[in-house]
Design brief:
The protein is built from 8 helices and 7 strands, in the order ααβααββαββααββα. By secondary structure, it is α+β, with helices and mostly antiparallel strands. The structure holds adenosine-5'-triphosphate and magnesium ion (MG).
Length: about 250
Amino acid sequence: MANVSPSHGKGEPWSQDQAFLSSLVHELKAPLATIEGSALLCRKWLDLGKLDALAFGEALDRIIRQSNRIREVIEGLRFLHTPANLRWETLDLAVVIQETLEEFASELKNKRIDVSVRDSVPNPKVRGEGILIKTVLRNLVKNALEAMADHQKELPKLEIRVSSPDDTVELAVQDNGTGMSIEIMKGLFEPYRTTKAWGSGVGLALCRKIVLAHNGRIWAKSRAGRGTTFFVSLPRVGEKENERRTSSGRRPRR
Ligand SMILES: Nc1ncnc2c1ncn2[C@@H]1O[C@H](COP(=O)(O)OP(=O)(O)OP(=O)(O)O)[C@@H](O)[C@H]1O
Ligand SMILES: [Mg+2]
């Protein structure tokens, strides 16, 4: 993890267009592979006349989840380049966490990652655009998994915590991966900075842009060789405010 300058491994800096394209390709590859694999399985079961309704339903669910993921990736990148008005809704962060971890389910299982969610807030409600808040969490989880893949000394551990200091909801995503040097921490949220041969350095810049648009804060603590924790703090929706919004017809959209 020495080189923090934008790079695509060939000694030349990325142009913004190249980085954007590379990021798009990188983000879409995994869900497309899952969709193709699941659809081919369904085709095979049909051709062989072996129709296990449960397995078939699970394959369809994977296709639906990963199609949603593709839609969300495109929405996130669109937001990075052409910020639009937010579609505000009341969100339960516990649900956002659950849905995001479901997207990574097979990767977490295959890589034997010890995942824990510590949710000390009964109703961690925030206001914002669900797709974008999920994009933040997805990027933080993706970075954590990549940092742990590069650092196999310990059993990989991913911990997600939700707490509520003051009138905010604070989300922490902790890994025991490579950690970061001070040089990497400087300008961490600047776009197009990456230490990864295949990375485009878009993820954290997008996270910051989204969090700021939601009147929140994002920061990180890290120890080289020991691991990293990213924190996201968002204004909390109080119970009364939540009731007022839902009873006045502005129901949370899911
Ligand atoms: N959890 C983490 N552990 C260690 N290093 C991290 C972690 N998260 C981010 N980094 C460092 O910050 C850099 C920027 O991260 P960012 O998500 O913006 O881009 P990327 O992961 O390199 O590429 P992209 O997300 O666009 O595919 C990474 O290249 C990596 O060096
Ligand atoms: Mg990233």
